[in-house]
Amino acid sequence: MFLHKYKGLILAIVGVAIYIFVALYLQNLAYTYKFCIKIFAALLVLIGWVIVSETKHSYKKTEG
Hints:
Keywords: Membrane, Transmembrane, Transmembrane helix. There is one protein chain. This protein is mostly helical. The protein is about 75% helix and about 0% strand. It has one domain. The longest helix has 24 residues, at about 30-55. It contains 3 helices and no strands.
């Protein structure tokens, strides 16, 4: 239930963590590999953002 509820947020956080790890620690990696990993991380953040924005939030009260 936890993973299902927060999967968009988890994807975005993993994407940011990968991006920071590549930027700070993988200095000796070839440029093309770093670029591809950064694109992958950006895609994870984008997919997570879309999932979060399309999720119906159950904590909001509905009139009815």
